[in-house]
Amino acid sequence: MNMAQGDQGSGVDRLDVLARAAALLHANGHTTTETVAGVERLAARLGEPVRVVPDWSMVTLADARGRPLRVVAAPPKAVNMHVATAVMTLLQRVDTAPGPVDLAALDAQLRQAARRPASATPLFVAASVTGAVALAVIFGAHHPGAIALVAVAAGIGGWARRLLGARGQGMIGQAFAAAAIAGVAGALATHLDLSGPARLVAVCPAMILVPGRTSSTAPSTWGTPASRKGWHG
Predict the structure, then answer these.
(1) What is the mean pLDDT of residues 120-131?
(2) What is the pLDDT of residue 179?
(3) Contact, 26 vs 54, CB < 8 A?
(4) Residue 90 CB: number of other CB atoms within 10 A?
(5) Angstrom distance (rounded) from CA 172 to CA 81
(6) Which of 28-32, 50-54, 179-183, 200-204 has the highest mean pLDDT?
(7) What is residue 219's DSSP assignment?
(8) What's this protein's family per the entry (predicted)?
(9) Which of 39, 60, 71, 109 is the most exposed, fewest CB within 10 Å of its CB?
């Protein structure tokens, strides 16, 4: 469907479309900088300039004076990077297409992108194990027991994160579970009397599964840069 054809009088609200795009990107782990830039470019393309203000579990669209126009919930409970990639590809296509934007077509394709399935849980668990073991080796783990401990902890942590996300648990609960599993792994490493570096690398599962740093904007100040934690893709 060509979104560069048609007009904007399709009965679809431009702010609703912008809010949907921002919420899908934010809730599915896309970087804050690219989310803000992509949605604000789309807003300019639609003739509805807004400021995108992401927060922990929501996204606000504000006008030039900082007054909120739309506030949508976007908790990153079950991050699906397939959705984020599909939405960004869609926004880039709209950005480069000539002519007016068909809002109805754009809205339909955003809804379609939101239904894309996530990667299979076994694949996610395998990726978690691979990443944690690689970090362990980089940090100097050579003891087979330490590497096995890291692999088991990362596998359990990856499975737990998927399970909690599917049940609607927020990012704080998921991060706590991953950190708790890593803590148990560290305690086991100490109990098994592994070497000092091996005890340290037992926390590698947490480094893979606990959210990292990203930049955002504090909604209470409407534009003051602040740091927050959020899921990365």
Answers:
(1) 88
(2) 78
(3) yes
(4) 20
(5) 19
(6) 50-54
(7) T
(8) Belongs to the ThrE exporter (TC 2.A.79) family.
(9) 71
Residue 52, helix vs strand vs coil: strand
Tokens standing for 190?
């100490």
Residue 57 burial (10 A CB sphere; 0-12, 13-18, 19+): middle
Taking residues 24-39, report their average pLDDT.
Answer: 93
CA dihedral 160, 163, 169, 172 (to 10 degrees): 20
Burial of 49 (0-12, 13-18, 19+ CB in 10 A): exposed
Decide if 215 contacts 166 (C-beta within 8 A): no
First to last CA, the chain: 28
Q: What is the DSSP letter of 227?
A: E
Helices 144-166 & 121-138, crossing angle to 10 degrees? 140
